[in-house]
Write a structure and sequence with these properties.
The protein is of the alpha+beta class. It has a domain of 91 residues. 37% of the residues lie in helices and 28% in strands. It has 2 helices and 10 strands, in the order ββααββββββββ. The strands form 3 sheets. A 4-stranded antiparallel beta sheet has the order 5-4-3-7, covered by helices on one side. Strands 6-8-9-10 form a 4-stranded antiparallel beta sheet, with no helix packed on it. The protein has a two-stranded antiparallel ribbon with strand order 1-2. The termini are far apart.
Length: 164
Amino acid sequence: MTAQRKGKLFPNSLLHQLRLNSSKGYTLSEMLIVLSTFIMITILVIPLHYQTIEKVKAKQFFGQFESDLLLTQQLTIEKHAFFQIMFRRETNDYILYDGLQKKTVFKRTLPDKWQYQFITTKPSIRFNRDGTIRQPGTIRFENGELAYRVTFPFGTVRMILHET
């Protein structure tokens, strides 16, 4: 049996009921389902977004830090052995210091809420004239959520980064 008789809909047909409901708008239960789904998606996405931002900050910081180590190594090889990267806890930064000229070449501030701990190295990173590091060791960086271990091995390799 069809839903049409002489061009008109049966009053109790499913199509007729859908047309009547569609003109009334959304029901309270439909609105609550959509709203709860939106809230659950938001709750899941915001922490992932925060972690992504922190990882991008870390990647940028360690990229810059590695470039600064390369510069320190190159300046030591080409000019003199008195260049060093010095960490300063009171200002939460590090500087490239020229010990011969007794001046700061540049200063880099650590990202907000970052702390560091010298595990087996000193607060000053220096290279020998042949490009090898003077004191191999490890520094731990952390921001509460993420932690990284930077190792300065023997030889001309500047650093190895480990996420812990």
